């Protein structure tokens, strides 16, 4: 066959076109090309070789062979679970750990108590709204004095300052000096909100300090229970206090 004939035959060949994707197989992706087929074939043979190796390993396995995972593993609800070995701890080591826990909790509790004292010193135990929670009692002799009683005149101040429990100057002081501090209602409201936030923080710290004290007592009780001394439970443990035990008296040398 001459070169001219081969060239003419090649020119008459129709160009190759990819086969259209059937509509039913569109969800499976595009048709695989030749290089994709090689990759898939390589992956398939790799998996088959791995399966054959596992089958050979299973056939060569000794049925009487023992290894420790046989007693540390079990199947729960179809899931393979390996049991974790328990740590071997002596009673003396447990006591030492309890002591360290108590020291840490006590350190945090003391730090919290110092913060509480600092907040109390800053707030001077004032109410957030600017008026005391308690009542101020005035004693008079007759019913007439009760009806005619004037708090502003009795305290020697202005009627607008009667509700205050702090920064309540007398009339003589107001005549001698100007009013100190903020007088704008918006500013006073902002200060009252800040004071309320400080009291909320103080309440939270007091509750946290009480909770730490209870935790410390419970840890100390669990530490005492490690002693091999006859004991009787007197009161059950609650959220606000530890359990109470009565130990048998033993004379120490």
UniProtKB/TrEMBL annotation:
Cross-referenced InterPro entries: SSU_processome_Utp11 (IPR007144)
Keyword Nucleus: yes
Subcellular location as annotated: Nucleus, Nucleolus
GO-annotated cellular components: small-subunit processome
Keywords: Nucleus, rRNA processing
PANTHER family: U3 SMALL NUCLEOLAR RNA-ASSOCIATED PROTEIN 11, U3 SMALL NUCLEOLAR RNA-ASSOCIATED PROTEIN 11-RELATED
Family: Belongs to the UTP11 family.
Name by which UniProt lists this protein: Probable U3 small nucleolar RNA-associated protein 11
């Amino acid at each position: 066959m001459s070169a001219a004939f081969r060239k003419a035959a090649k020119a008459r060949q129709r160009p190759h076109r990819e086969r259209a994707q059937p509509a039913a197989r569109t969800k499976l992706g595009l048709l695989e090309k030749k290089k994709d087929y090689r990759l898939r074939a390589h992956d398939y043979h790799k998996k088959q070789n791995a399966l054959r190796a596992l089958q050979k390993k299973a056939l060569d396995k000794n049925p009487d062979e023992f290894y420790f995972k046989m007693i540390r593993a079990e199947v729960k609800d179809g899931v393979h679970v390996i049991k974790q070995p328990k740590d071997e701890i002596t009673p003396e080591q447990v006591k030492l750990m309890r002591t360290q826990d108590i020291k840490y909790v006590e350190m945090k509790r003391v730090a919290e108590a110092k913060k509480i004292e600092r907040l109390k010193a800053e707030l001077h135990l004032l109410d957030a709204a600017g008026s005391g929670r308690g009542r101020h009692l005035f004693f008079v002799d007759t019913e007439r004095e009760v009806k005619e009683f004037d708090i502003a005149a009795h305290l020697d101040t202005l009627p607008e300052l009667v509700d205050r429990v702090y920064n309540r100057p007398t009339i003589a002081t107001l005549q001698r000096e100007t009013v100190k501090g903020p007088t704008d209602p918006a500013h006073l409201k902002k200060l009252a909100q800040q004071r309320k936030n400080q009291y909320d923080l103080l309440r939270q710290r007091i509750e946290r300090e009480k909770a730490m004290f209870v935790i410390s007592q419970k840890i100390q009780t669990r530490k005492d229970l490690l002693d091999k001394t006859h004991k009787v439970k007197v009161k059950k443990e609650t959220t606000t206090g530890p359990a109470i035990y009565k130990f048998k008296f033993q004379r120490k040398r």
